[in-house]
Amino acid sequence: MYVYINDGIVPASDAKISVFDHGFLYGDGVYETMRAYDGVVFMIEEHIKRLFRSASMIRLDIARDAGSVRTAIYRTLSANSLKSAYMRLTVSRGYGPVGLDPELCKKPTFIIIAEEFREYPETYYENGIRVIIAETRRNLTTAINPQIKSLNFLNNILAKVEAKEKGAYEAFMLNASGHLTEGTISNLFFVKDDILCTPSVECGILDGITRAIVIDLAARNGITVREGRFTQDELYRASEVFITNTTAEVMSACRVDNVDFMIGDVSGLLLKEYRKEVDAYVKEKRGESPSLRE
Ligand code: PDD
To answer: Is 109 in the pocket of ligand 1 (CB under 6 A)?
Structure first.
């Protein structure tokens, strides 16, 4: 396995960062998770755009442009001879003396990891996953805005710990005013009275790239979509519940707390349509992907 670190690719065993890296010391940095299908990184431009948005929201200068980030992502994929991959791009503030001041760090640390994509167990899609509504509340937009895809992940980890303790896979978090937000690594959707509902960005969520595609696909398939403020009681009364993210695509929940759900028609349709969208994208971009032959 090879890792892209700063300006080059090295064997994973040589990919090391300083113990003074502020990403390690303070969770000061940002990241993106991407998925490659058949050698094509799905929605790469959107991920790069969001990476720059997250970086700008924490005043982090990535010190390279979108084109060179794109090249680095594809170089990492080719170096590992991967077609189907999980990819994680991390940019931290870099190393510097201890202290919170970002100016202590002169150069960001830039890392890309690519691993063979490990498919989720088929049962997750066939039977659905178990979810809880966590006691842990989602970060306030005025504290750590969830739109920043940051390395500071303890909020989500605490909710994940709750889920694990209750035998669930994912946890939905409420915001400070008691409205639904999102999962620990996913956005949430539910169907109620034939309307597809999902918490709006103002509730305090990461505006997922998969979420945007699913909203668009739903509209194109004649499904009414409502982005807004929803309570957990509304979700309990839904006919279907599902999550979305880059790696899981569209995955249904069979249970939220003590309420059971069917794998419904809407989630089934949207998963199918999402996969069609991926196939079309891959077909279109296959010829364009830069490779090591640059
Ligand atoms: N997580 N909300 C949170 C808190 C997330 O961490 C993610 C993604 C999403 C969905 O975003 P997208 O559709 O752009 O993947 C929503 C990734 C998969 C991760 O942390 O690895």
So the answer is: no
- Per-residue model confidence as pLDDT tens digits over 71-121: 999 999 999 999 999 999 999 999 999 999 999 999 999 999 999 999 999
DSSP 77-113: HHHTT-SSEEEEEEEE--B-SSSS-GGG--S-EEEEE
d(CA 155, CA 148) in angstroms, rounded, equals 13
Domain boundaries, the chain: 2-116, 122-280
Question: pLDDT digits over 215-251, tens only?
Answer: 999 999 999 999 999 999 999 999 999 999 999 999 9
Give me the CATH topology for the region 122-280.
Answer: D-amino Acid Aminotransferase; Chain A, domain 2 (3.20.10)
Please indicate whether residue 51, judged by its CB atom, sits closer than 6 Å to ligand 1.
no
**CATH, domain range 2-116:** 3.30.470.10
CA 2 and chain centroid, separation: 22
Q: How far is the CA of 275 from the centre of ligand 1 (A)?
A: 18
| Cα distance between residue 84 and residue 36, in whole Å | 5
